[in-house]
Task: structure prediction
Amino acid sequence: MIDEAARDLRRERRRGRNGEPGSESSRRPNYRSLKNPFLPQPVLSDDQVAAIHDTALRVLEELGIKVLLPEARAILAEAGALVDEDSQMVRIGRDMVEAALASAPRSIPAHGGDRSRDLALELGSMTFLAGSGAPNVTDLERGRRPGTLAAFEEFMKLLQHFDVLHMLGPCIEPQDVDTRFRHYATGRAQLTLSDKLPFVFARGTPQVEDSFEMVRLARGLSESEFRAGAYCYTVINTNSPRQLDIPMAQGIIDFAKAGQISIITPFCLAGAMAPITVAGALTLQHAEAMAGLTLAQLARPGAPVVYGSFSSNVDMKSGAPAFGTPEHIKATLGAGQLARFTGLPWRSGGGSAANISDAQAAHETQFALWGSVLAGATVCIHAAGWLEGGLSVSFEKLITDIEALQTVAELCAKTPGDADAIGFEAIAEVQPGGHFFSAAHTMTRYRTAFYEPLVADWSNFGNWTQSGGKTATERATGIWKRILSDFQPPQSAAATAGVLDEFIARRSEEGGAAPVS
Amino acid sequence: MIDEAARDLRRERRRGRNGEPGSESSRRPNYRSLKNPFLPQPVLSDDQVAAIHDTALRVLEELGIKVLLPEARAILAEAGALVDEDSQMVRIGRDMVEAALASAPRSIPAHGGDRSRDLALELGSMTFLAGSGAPNVTDLERGRRPGTLAAFEEFMKLLQHFDVLHMLGPCIEPQDVDTRFRHYATGRAQLTLSDKLPFVFARGTPQVEDSFEMVRLARGLSESEFRAGAYCYTVINTNSPRQLDIPMAQGIIDFAKAGQISIITPFCLAGAMAPITVAGALTLQHAEAMAGLTLAQLARPGAPVVYGSFSSNVDMKSGAPAFGTPEHIKATLGAGQLARFTGLPWRSGGGSAANISDAQAAHETQFALWGSVLAGATVCIHAAGWLEGGLSVSFEKLITDIEALQTVAELCAKTPGDADAIGFEAIAEVQPGGHFFSAAHTMTRYRTAFYEPLVADWSNFGNWTQSGGKTATERATGIWKRILSDFQPPQSAAATAGVLDEFIARRSEEGGAAPVS
Result:
């Protein structure tokens, strides 16, 4: 009966009604600028949140954090921290943290290569990033293999294609490029293929300075213009527990001084690098994030810093990290409470420990995603394509996860609830046991009423079998291949190739820049 | 490094620490009795919810509903409804609906075969049911095939096994049993293999009376004891739009009179059997649910009725139903608002339109699940194993979805946030860059700190490949087979076989009971 009714609808369409302009109401939300529509969900009481914050300050004040970079220790000492140069331990007073929290911006305007790609990173806004930092890459046609620049470039095209991904990320480590030159290749790919906010690895000042220069060249910015706004970002991972290594500390300082964004993310796996309890892992995470934040604000008050959380748990039998677990979700919800306690924009982490794009991968990714959404994360990293706890990214999983992100994005659109949407007249028009396919209420809305899926196939078993009986993952192969073959970079991005290549050629001739460790 | 640390932990265990009793804190939530820990999420304003309720009453009052059963029309007319016997249209005044809402219970105690299986169906409690009503069944070993009694019985064993499934359901239609005797076979399977709340199809009074008698025999209840409490339930589907057919109307009356539970669920697919807008679909759903509720309360004031919602949308290109879509989630969230407006316990619907247990199936099922959880549904039907929009249930998907339900169940457990959980001393005990595997804080907690997965495999790619490289769905085959081969029914249930068989033999000899339509 539904099928017959659908035929009626097609007939109606052929009659030309669909050409009429006017009253059709539009569903389409702006995927490029999402506001989280959900109430943030707490897992801890307000008192407990305050106690975690307070204990984190005690950790910094009484126990301290090991800071391996002399320059960072000097900056912290200068501001009043108690530094033991022998042990490299730095004890940071709560007054210092409180001053840093006061100077850190609550809202960070981040500039893409086009105004429509600009972001406001603040509590309430919601951005998604694909899986990042994977040494390996996998797809159904070419199998699992070490990351290459070609795969990195392909991924950039896919990230550019989907508006629901808001920033670029270091999706794949291109292991076929020498580490002295790798940042040129990844910077070039990001800046010539996309107009979204690019990522820069904090692997020492020489590489960071090179990368900043590439952003300035691509965006046509003077040094002072660049320093006055945020045009790229990095992720700083502390070496939990309580340790900040040389490139990470240097990155905090370099990005702060340049006014660029640091996402300071302790990676606190409960039971391994952090206490086994959710509250304990959050306490350690909070202490380390506060230490990084303080260093950034001392390097330059007002520096754009995103509070970072990526606390999950390990399998206590094997020590293997796990994601999308109940503890991961709870830790993310608790991190959201801590972020709101401080008022800072913040990031969470998605992902899955599954080895292929199967039901486990989808479920874990969804749970991590909902944890982030319900925690009110400003930035959700690893939200699409991440497998093996980050050891690979999958072309197909990128596509199937993007469907999930688009579904969440659709939920950001208001649900009309006025008399016209309620539609008493439509209900009156259709007789008992009839159908609404050709009701006027339907005809004015059917083109945009519903989300149209990217990869989901809603055909019945017979039709699906006849058309090859492909899984969503198999269908995703066709989708990413089609996007890649049709891809056209934004003109503004493609036009930067000349000036970037000139810079890269000169710097390469000079020997490039080795990573600092 | 994590691997080394895990070895340390194993060594610690061998040293015997794990034998110590005492301070270990327990995570384990009681899966049999879940309270929804989430704040309900609104999609409509309070005014809009009131307007939908009001418009639904207008629909019943001004447009009416077609009621095909003369007895139902007579009951409604007797209470003041305006009935046109020619058209079978019944117009129900808002005073009648308001009286029904006043007499419907806010909390329904439902009795299983064991006290630990008793449920309190009310706002705030959360129960899950597997996929129901499928004509086909599928698994990786035997393929997709029409439902049989053997498959039904196997499914009952699996449903009984998992505490996170709270009631039984008519998972598979056993097409190899004549319809005159099918209710005996499905009733027997439910009552002899499980002590959970059984389902009874409303396919006419003769079958319903037979089924009630089987419940009374199995539970050892007199007729008056049975009528004084709820021992089974049915699902009533209206024929949207605005039509109540003979077996459904009869079911409402029969279940109400017997004090058994009716879940009154209009199946309002927006754009097809309901207006294309979420608010419009909800308005029609609400009107039909209110009509069913009113009939039930007239048949017996105080009859246990669950408000039902299963509103999703269709693909406007093909008319195919879709689930786990943005519109499905929004409709579920709105239904939760309407249920809270009335104060009634209510049901939602999960599921997926995917044809196999793939990434699409997992994502759609998750979205529908989160819609239900965030809407505060008392009963979430089709939460596990449902494929093809209900045309099949999958043994493997049942297992992978149960992992998702168990993850949600874990989130119902409180997250400890006291000083002991925050663990300042644990953080002090572990040196910078060290690990927490052998910290005292870890050792007292590691056995129960984290959820242990049912089917998820967190081993690394090498180990996973060596152990066969199986997908979660493939691993699920081994799990359901193991559960079936180890299955022991509850003694109390198995013990009912004799008395049930005697009844079934007698009734079969009498010719059974044909379904009424």
Q: What stands out?
A: The radius of gyration of chain A is 25 Å.
